[in-house]
Amino acid sequence: MKQLRFSSFRQRLNAAFLAVSLVPVLLCSALLLQIFRLRMTADQQQNAEQQLDGACHALFSMQEGLQEAAITIGGSETVLGALSGGWENSASVYSALYDATEDVRRFARFELYDAEGTLMYATQTVHGAQTLPVSWGILKEAADRDTIVYSASIDPTDLDAPVLRGAVRLTRDGQTAGFLVAAFYETQLRAMFDSLAGAQNEILLMDGFWRGVYCSQQAQVQTLSYALRGQLLHGKALTGLSDNFVYTARQDEATGLFLVLQQPQVFTRGTLRLLYTVSALCALGGVAVSIALSLRLSRQMFQPIGTLHRAITQVGKNDLEVQVPVQEGQCDELGELAQQFNGMVLSLRRNQQALLENQQALNDAQIRMMQAQLNPHFLCNTLDTMKWISKINQVPQVALMSTNLADILRFCISPDEFVELRQELAILGRYVEIQRIRLSDSFTFAQDVPEGLLSCLVPKMMLQPLAENAILHGLSGVQDGRLTVTARESDGVLEICVLDNGCGFPAEMLGPYQAPEQQTGHLGLFNVDTILRKHYGESFGLRLGNRKDGAGACITARLPMRRRDADAAGAGC
Amino acid sequence: MGKWRILAVVLLLFLLTGCAGTAPEPDYAPEDEERLVLYTSHKKEVWWPIVKEFETRTGVWVEVVEGGTNELLERLDKEQDAPQADVMFGGGVESLESYRDLFAPYTCAEADAILPQYRAQDDIWTPFSSLPVVFVYNPKLVRAGEITTWRDLLDPTWKGKIAFADPSVSGSSYTALVTMLCAVEGEADDILRAFAENLDGKQLESSGAVLSYVAGGQAVVGVTLEETASRRIAAGDELAMVYPADGTSCVPDGCAILNGAPHADNARAFVDFTVSRDVQQLIQEQFCRRSVRSDLEPAGELPSFGRIAQVDYDVSLASESRESVLMSWAFYQETEETP
Question: Are B257 and B271 in contact (CB under 8 A)?
Answer without folding.
Answer: yes
